[in-house]
Amino acid sequence: MIRPEAPVLLEIRDLHASVADQPILHGVNLTIRAGEIHAVMGRNGSGKSTLSKVLAGHPAYTVTGGSVTYQGEDLLALAPELRARRGVFLGFQYPVEIPGVSNLEFLRVATNGRRLEQGAEELDTFAFEDLVRERLAVVQMDPAFLERSVNEGFSGGEKKRNEILQMALLDPLVAILDETDSGLDIDALRIVAGGVNQLATPGNATLLITHYQRLLDVITPDYVHVMAAGRILRTGGKDLALELEDRGYDWVDAELAALAPAPVEVG
Amino acid sequence: MATLSMPTAVAAASSWGSELLLALESGASPQPPLAAARQRAARALADRPLPSRRQEAWRFTDIAPLLAITPAQLPPATTVPATLPSVTPGVVRLVLDGHGDPLAGVSMPAGIEAIPAADLEALLQESSTDRGEDRGANGASNHAAARAGSEAPWSGLLAAATAGQILALRVRGVVEPTLELVSDAASAEGVMPLRLLLILEPEARLELLQVHRASAASLTTVLLEARLGAGARLSHGLIAQGGGAAVLLADLAVEQDPDSHYAFTSVVAGWALSRLEPRVLQSGGGATTRLRSLQRVDGRQIADQHSQVRFEGPEGELDQLHKVIADGAGRSVFNGAVAVPRAAQRTDAVQLSRSLLLSDRARIDTKPQLEIVADDVKCAHGATVSRLQSEELFYLQSRGIAAANASRLLLRGYCGEVLRELPAAATIWQPLAMVLAEEAPRP
Fold first, then answer.
1. Can you tell me the distance from the alpha carbon of B66 to that of B89, in angstroms, rounded to the nearest whole number?
2. Looking at the domain assignment, is residue B1 inside a domain?
3. B26 found inside a domain
4. Which residue in chain A is spatially nearest to B395 when comparing CA positions?
5. What residues of B are in contact with residue A170 (Cβ under 8 Å)?
6. Using one digit for the tens of pLDDT, what is the confidence trace for B100-114?
7. ipTM score for this prediction
8. Would the CB atoms of A100 and B398 count as touching at under 8 Å?
9. What is the pLDDT of residues B164-190, one digit of tens each?
């Protein structure tokens, strides 16, 4: 839902970042307002996942230039856990297995951290169980998964559902979903995408990172951005995704070549 | 010790054992069946050198903390534990201090009885630990320690040579309550020798929780011999909470008849030096053995576990997991011996050693030792040493959990895999808090 008067939640300006001294992002610009759904597409290595990791604060990535403002605040100055508590959520492409840590306890600790930040009361074990059982419905997840260790032995689809369950509990303002559709069969994709649609409100925003149109058949984006060589090359509406599906990414190479010389680090 | 020259150190070491034996001779003599056993063990001990790092079995384990202990028995008055948690329902607790009768004033649950002196004499005659003999040296014997492995460990021999008492119990049928055996040297200084004998008759079932605590320069030395008849099940937990300069030496010799099930879960933390030697003998194969252990070292502590499992018949099963958390300048030693001779066809044995290194100064020595002669067997072993995974930490942080809490959650998960296998009655001893309490850096 595009509303020009809606408040800006996330403002990315000329963002440069590197990993292991290898520059990956070369000046990303993106403005996300409340109520919007954005899709970032692009080939492997274009910088999509790096963008998501940088926004979440992964320690392996170094910001070398630019800024990210979240609700008027410098997001990059915050520790990863504070970003999460203030409402920035990253759905992992490969959710991590944590043996021995109960999924239920993990969800409760995480949820209470966010609730405190929102000025809500912490939930005790019983109240939390009620909440989590209600939210399980969003992703049609079996309560048995609560008793297991975090993601341990979960199938690809179960891990992704668990990510969306966490999103449902943490109630983020900006949800960044990194290839949430990868490794899902068509039924699981519908369930996961349906969960994302249910959680989208006029007050929050979603940034979908994906390779494929098939996710966008179920979640309709307001904006589609094409990333290449660490920057956003083109921005359009949902038709741009269809065009990509049709034409592939070869035109991106042509457009990049026209931009030659190859991107160099600024500053 | 570091300032002493080598010959002086050797002299100090060899005199430590004889000083202890001398000190004990002057004390009250034990009950008649035990007196002879103790003498046998004392003679065997005198023939043994003290452990030193020149011996393969003690190569990584410096016994300096042991030699720092006053070689005299703890007096009874100072060993009365005032700090024990209250007994939970469904638990029968026996308090051991090496002096008083642990059975005094306790009504034993149905199925457990003290072994009378006459029977005890014959059982003790069979124990080769008392003679320090090699495994198999007494093939006619049906007693655990008699055939329980290579040379009977020095620590077991020490306990046998010094214990003035033996708690000997026979178990029949299904025992409902958990039997809790507790010693707490608290802040006393000296040596507390403990000797235990458990005979589980065929089809008997028992849940046993052994707890040893100490917080000062004391040695708790334990010899537990257990025999499981056909179809018997023993679920055995051991919680060892040390502090300060305290030392623990425990020799656990278990013999299993076919179709018996033995599950042993140990949690050890806080000792200046600890050495656990679980030795399981499946006398005719066909039994199941499940070993779980967790040890944490910090500061300059040393935790050592030498386990031995031997199958003397076909179709035995072993599932062993040993976990370590090494912090500070702590040292952890694991040696897991598994013997599968020709008679032990179709043995199924898995041994895994997992160590978590939390500090650059900590050291871990881990060594599987599989001797497999039988050709139709499944034997797997593995060892990993790792740090807390940064991807796991980041995942938790990305859900709003602060780094310190995330580490703690991961450590809890790591410990939980072993702790959840302790008998339920272990909860009151707060094993998790015990293992994690030392997270703060020591001065």
1. 37
2. no
3. no
4. A96
5. 399-400
6. 888 988 889 999 999
7. 0.94
8. no
9. 899 999 999 999 999 999 999 988 999
